[in-house]
Fold:
Amino acid sequence: MIMMKHLAGALAGVALVGVMATAADAQSRLTRNEIVNSLQRTEGTVGAFDPMALQREAERAAAMGGDNAPGPVSDRLTRLPQLSVEINFDLNSARIRPESYYSVGLIADALHTPALMGQRLLVVGHTDASGPREFNLELSKKRAASVAAALTTTFNVPASEVISIGLGEEQLQDFANPYDAINRRVQIINLGP
Amino acid sequence: MIKAFALSLLIAIGIGSHANAQTIGYADAIQILARDCGSDIEKYCKSANLANSGITNCLAENRQNLAAQCQTSMVQVRNSIAARMKAQNDIWQICNRDAQRFCPMTQRGRGFVLSCLITAERSVSKSCNQAITNAGWR
Structure:
């Protein structure tokens, strides 16, 4: 039963990614309550999922260098309640672009609802495969941290409830199309209370 | 006569907005800023970050240069956000008796009691319902 619910949560997340990818104005169509529903936990637990261990694993993988990452570093990530959001940054920078302020604000509004109060949120940054693996890893870490910082300062989400990691190109959304824009995303994952 | 009417209208609006504080969330607030101050942000705040209130601080520093609409929106956004934050903070005081009455067995903490009050919309007091609406939790 718990497995089924986890699966449902994962499917909801994937479906949303599909919508985001096809709609040009996807950012303005996402609503706060969609975020709440995607992140809301039914029951069950994320168990001993350790985001920092995953961060170290991605760092080890990226340090092996080479052109492209060979495959995902984690298969557990997709099973957690989550959604992916497209957030635009300045080129090779962690500065969030004004057209993406709304999406970050929506995430904040969702976290301020009773349904998500007191839940810990993991912000995961991803890049596509263009550029060196270690560079991408560092950039994705900075970008995820930038989103987390916006949430916990400007948007008043308790700092104890948000952590961020970056997986660079080590966890592509679509390994068959490593340079596709769908890979450049920020994943928001609910780690539970 | 017209003056008296205008005055009474203002008072009516004032009272109305007190009971029904127009609050907006962060997404709507920041979208208004991005819309009305977008070109000023591009001009004066190219390197400012969203974090640490970087954008609003930068706009405030360049206040005298900003477009009129941007200045107006900044004040409006600040007030609406403050009203919503106040509404979210005030809720325990306003809804305390409703919480004791309608959600006595609900586990405390993590938004459970608030979720209970929202579900019990038809039973809870008018003032508590209004407070929940002002907090943006519908």
Notes: The mean pLDDT of chain B is 84. Residues 68-102 of chain B form the longest helix (35 residues).
